[in-house]
Each structure stands twice: as structure tokens, then as C-alpha cells.
Write a structure and sequence with these properties.
globular; 9% strand; binds manganese (II) ion; metal-binding; 15 helices; three-stranded parallel beta sheet; isomerase; TIM Barrel; EC 5.3.1.-; 48% helix; 11 strands; six-stranded parallel beta sheet; alpha/beta
Length: 423
């Protein structure tokens, strides 16, 4: 995939500079009572899952402009995901989407072994119709008025669990597009009751060591009302279903300016924070690259995660974004790094000082305490963690030097643009 000598040559050019920067940062942190090696060890152990659908070029409902070497199937996708992990050492797992990635478990496991990857949460799809499907999801899936459609959607989710079990996954993520486009179209209470009833049947099929993560989204594809529209409804679902049901927070699935870090703190406090889909946005569910618009918000989310950390607190972390104008591999590498950066910055927060300022109502110093951590350039920590793991100091530079994209473009025929983005 990526020749070892390419990474080594790329790192040789940057090694001395990195060590000087790392030592300087280490001295600075030492004066603040922080052990840089401890932070680096935590960053090195922090993995972010890559979505299989993220390595293909995304799009909007207007158009899609594919790049060269688009993955043709799940095995090409795993190759690309393997490259991302090889160069960043930050993305050890892939999240599959069924039926897009459906394949024989033995073949998936063999490819995972070859690419050095494992499998994260399984994702079901009842928001679009598949070829040969008996009943349509046009008017909903788990909350559909027709019990036969609901049964079909439940069966699909159970099949996702079955495949996931065979490949070592431990969670099922469910997002439905169910909702309504007109006032009066759906009866809110009855529709939600139908959803809960169907979700209970999925939960009943969940293995003991699995979690069911439900993902809320404010709007789209339903534009008047959405069945699982916000964290409040999501919390109700997780509470109704049981202990192994938790909420998944996709950063893009909220109204603009919503205080997501506070939602994170609330869900964490009550044991219902199951995981994340990281991305960034300016206006809505933009699915822009993580940290590209508001890195401070990402940091504030991680500040709450570090604050809530303790025994049994194990939210899952995955990227979920659409790469419309960049090479998806490059975007995913940069985004995984941005997640690690926010985590490292959050680890630098002086929590004792912050608690003191909070108790003393010193708003200015409390916020300055956060800003001090956020302003610290932790890049040498991230880069050193990569170097020590045999990955690249500069993943994008090494990727471009490798010629991987041009190589796979020869093997993978160009695909037509078409329409249809990624949700
Ligand atoms: Mn998502």
C-alpha cells in the first residue's frame, strides 16, 4: 500500500525539527506541571474510526464530482482506510455501512488482517431503498404506518448485527430518516410509539456485549418533522430501551449555535453518551472536515469528555463527513489528527485551577484557563506519537510522495459523477 521507505524518507527530512519542537514544548509543559510523555501516551492510545463511505468522494443533492481512483467496493475502501491508518496510526478501525459494504465475513476479516484494521460500529440503512427490496421506505422505516415495513426494517438491523458479530464489531448505530414533510402528515405520538416498538425488537436481538447507538438529526430528509430530531428524543429512546442503548452525537445534526458541549456533558452525566460522529459545519449538516470551521468547539467537546472520563466511560469516536472537493484520504487523515489535537489540548486543561475559578465565580480566569490549553500548539506531541508508531510525521506529505492515488487510479476505472450525497 504505502512503502515503508517512503514514510522513512519523509520522516528523515522532518525528524530533527520535530525533536527540537517536542523538547521545547516538553520544557514549557514541565513548567506548567504537565508531563509531555504522559500526554503523548494518551494520544497514541486514542483511536478514531473511519467510515467506509468516507473514502469515496461525497457530494450534495445537486451533484457529485468523483476524483481519480474511487473505491469500487468495500475491499478498495478497506485498502484506502488502511493507508490512512498506516500514515497516521490514528484510525485503527473502520465502520461499515450495510448494505453498501455487504460481503462474506471471512473475506472482510482477511482484508482487515491484510490492512491492519479492525471493525467499529455497524451502520444500518433504512433511509433508502435497495435493489430487490420488497417494501419501500419512502414513508419511513422503523416508524412506518405499515407493520410489514417496520418488520422489514427490524430484520435488516438484526442482519447487520449478525454480520457485525462475525467480524468483531461491538455496536450497531441506527439513524433513520423517518419524519414528515407536511404539518398533519404524521401523528407525532403514534409515529414515535411505532419507532420505539420497532427499536425494542432490535434491542432484543442485541448481543450481551454490544451497544445500540441511536443517532439524532434535526432535519433532512424529512423537512417538517423528524422522529429522532434531537438529544432529548434520543435520550428518551436510550432510556426506554435499556442500559445498552446510548445516544450518538453527530456534531452536524444540531441547529446552528446549539451548545453541543453541554449536551455532551448532560448525556455523559447520565451514562447515555454512546459515541460521536465528528465533522464540522457552518450552516447546517454540512459534513465539512472536522475542525475546519470551529476547532474551538471541538476542543470544548473534548474538554467535557476529559472531564467525564472515568471507569465505564467509553464513548465511541468516528468521523462522519463528506469530502466533496478534496482527496478523501487526505481529508480523513487531517480530520483524525484534528480529533487527536482537540483531545491533547483538553488534556492540558488545569482542572484543579478551573474548578477553583468555577467555585469562586471568577469567569474571566475560568475561561482563560480553557484558552490557555486551547492555544497550546500540541502538534509536536501528535507528530511524535505518529513517528514512534512508525507512521508519518507529515501524513499528507508522505501520502503525496507515495503516488498511491495515481496507482489506484490505474486499477480502478473512473466512475460517473451522478447525483446524491452522503447523509
Ligand atoms: Mn452521522
Amino acid at each position: 500500500m504505502i512503502d515503508k521507505t517512503i514514510i522513512e524518507a519523509s520522516n528523515d527530512d522532518r525528524d530533527a525539527g520535530l525533536r527540537a519542537d517536542y523538547d521545547a514544548l516538553g520544557e514549557q509543559l514541565d513548567r506548567r506541571g504537565i508531563d509531555i510523555a504522559a500526554i503523548k501516551a494518551k494520544v497514541a492510545g486514542f483511536g478514531i474510526a473511519v467510515p467506509s463511505w468516507g473514502v469515496g468522494t461525497g457530494g450534495t443533492r445537486f451533484a457529485r464530482f468523483p476524483g481519480p481512483g474511487e473505491p469500487r467496493h468495500v475491499f478498495d475502501k478497506l485498502d484506502d482506510c488502511g493507508v490512512i491508518h498506516r500514515l497516521t496510526a490514528a484510525t485503527p478501525r473502520v465502520s461499515l455501512h450495510i448494505p453498501w459494504d455487504d460481503a462474506a465475513p471471512a473475506d472482510l476479516l482477511a482484508k482487515a488482517e491484510e490492512t491492519g484494521l479492525g471493525f467499529d460500529a455497524m451502520n444500518s440503512n433504512t433511509f433508502s431503498d435497495q435493489p430487490g427490496q420488497a417494501l419501500s421506505y419512502k414513508f419511513g422505516s422503523l416508524s412506518h404506518t405499515d407493520p410489514a415495513v417496520r418488520a422489514q426494517a427490524v430484520e435488516h438491523n438484526l442482519a447487520c448485527i449478525e454480520l457485525g458479530q462475525a467480524i468483531g464489531s461491538k455496536a450497531l448505530t441506527v439513524w433513520v430518516g423517518d419524519g414528515s414533510n407536511f404539518p398533519g402528515q404524521a401523528h407525532f405520538a403514534r409515529q414515535f410509539d411505532r419507532y420505539l416498538d420497532a427499536a425494542r425488537r432490535i434491542y432484543a436481538g442485541l448481543p450481551e456485549d454490544w451497544r445500540l447507538l441511536t443517532e439524532h438529526k434535526m432535519y433532512e430528509p424529512a423537512f417538517y418533522s423528524t422522529v429522532v430530531q434531537d438529544w432529548g428524543t434520543n435520550y428518551l429512546i436510550a432510556t426506554e430501551l435499556g442500559e445498552r442503548a446510548q445516544c450518538l452525537v453527530d456534531l452536524g445534526h444540531h441547529a446552528p449555535n446549539v451548545n453541543i458541549e453541554m449536551i455532551v456533558a448532560r448525556l455523559a452525566r447520565f451514562g447515555k453518551l454512546g459515541g460521536f460522529h465528528f465533522n464540522d459545519s457552518k450552516y447546517g449538516d454540512d459534513d465539512l472536515d472536522t475542525g475546519s470551521i470551529d476547532p474551538y468547539r471541538l476542543f470544548l467537546v473534548f474538554n467535557e469528555l476529559v472531564e467525564a472520563d472515568g471507569p465505564g466511560f467509553e464513548p465511541m469516536h468516528m468521523l462522519d463527513q463528506s469530502h466533496n472537493v478534496t482527496d478523501p484520504i487526505e481529508s480523513l487523515m487531517v480530520s483524525a489528527t484534528e480529533v487527536q489535537r482537540a483531545y491533547a489540548q483538553a488534556l492540558l486543561v488545569d482542572r484543579a485551577a478551573l474548578a477553583g475559578f468555577q467555585e469562586g465565580n471568577d469567569a474571566l480566569m475560568a475561561t482563560a484557563t480553557l484558552k490557555r490549553a486551547f492555544r497550546t500548539d500540541v502538534e509536536p506531541i501528535l507528530a511524535m506519537a505518529r513517528l514512534e508508531a512508525g507512521a508519518a510525521i507529515d501524513p499528507v506529505a508522505a501520502f503525496r510522495a507515495s503516488g498511491y492515488r495515481a496507482r489506484v487510479a490505474e486499477a480502478r476505472p473512473a466512475v460517473a459523477g451522478g447525483s446524491g450525497g452522503i447523509v
